Amino acid sequence: MGGMIKDILIEFDAKGALATTHESQGSDMGLYGGFLGWEASDERLVNSAEAVKEAGIKVAIEIKDLGAQHPSTYKLTLKNDREAHEMVAISSGGGMIEIVEIDRVKVSMFGDCYETLLYTDDLRVLKYLQRNLPNDEMFIHRGTASTFIEVKTQRVLDEEFLQRIRTKFNIMNIVQLSPVLPVLSRKGQEVPFVTCNEMLQYNESKNLDLWELAVHYESMRGTISTEEVLNKMKRIVRIMETSISKGMKGTDYKDRILGYQSGLFKTQWENEKLLDGGILNQMILYITAMMEIKSSMGVIVAAPTAGACGTIPGTLLGAAHSMKRSEEEVAKAMLAAGMIGVFISNQATFSAEIGGCQAECGSASGMAAAGLVTLMKGSRRQTIDAASMALQNIFGMVCDPVANRVEVPCLGKNILAASNALACANMALANYDAVLPLGEVIEAMNQVGQSIPYELRCTALGGLSITKTAKLLEEKLKQKVNNDEI
Question: Which domain holds residue 322?
């Protein structure tokens, strides 16, 4: 729509998680920022609701029975003086979005390539496109209201090429959409493996460590060199370090439950008022600081999700700084952790709305355990066993945020996940028997996650979410924010 939007209707399914969490957990904030064309890292996002009003865009939200199959479904109707469009998208966890419908036509868009939509009934254009863009994917989408051809490319199509198409064929409209993911997909794309078993088969004659296998995966996935893979991960590590550093200096945000917890911990630790937790105390401090940056709407890395964003950086950076490990070693540990994440995303989910908190903090714990073993230069077998044991320990972890904010018990669960990762890393390094292969554990975790009652999967309808104190806190926060707006 060229950024020209006047009216927006947002619909959430009454039986989905977003019906109760869309406002308090920041989904609206990100959505409004998208309407304004802002990036996900834009620090103005915290004020996106006000910015939408100032831009003259009218937004209405309705909760109704949509019959949605996915618990985190967004249905949008967007209008201006010239046109109206509908879009349906699902949030699959960790910031990943898939657009599944445009104008009631089924599509599948992940924001991992440039998308060009050619609205036309003149399908002769398809042969012309196939001849001139042989390495790109194309799909015909027919709907009751319109027909369009979708072209997925790794680069934006230049205006001269598009003008030739307009001249040769009867094209009603051309819409170009830019990617949002940092690594693009391509036609015929292949990766060496997506499960742990496939990875082990791939590695039979190579004898590579887990982090090296992660580099192989990322190099093929993004058509980039080993050096570029490591450099990209180092940049991510620096973002994490900056977030933790800012968090430890103290943060302020009105719409949250917890205050400056990391400052309390640091003071008591320095004054020797805490039990000797060794390296774990450094992890607790870093996790707390990261979670405070998240809750004050600072920039974080959702690794693997925003609700579990403290576990992996807090655990691995806490351990690395305590052991004086280099940035290169930290990047390798993060790559190993990410490889475990690939297996989880392929066989299970990162979405608490589907699998409870075991999908978020639980997954992070298994990933962090593999990273810790990598920091200690353990074997490939030890990294996989550490992840397996860590995941085995978190089955059934529910998601029941207090006052509908991702703070309590989320902070404690991130710290619990780190403690579990540390223990399981040491168990693996001591050659404890994990017994169960990692792939089987992930499959079982997915089954358990889907068996958790709907009320305990990030809907704020059960567990700690519905305690008397939680409800009082939720009401207090509403009043506080409303009074500040007035």
Answer: 196-481
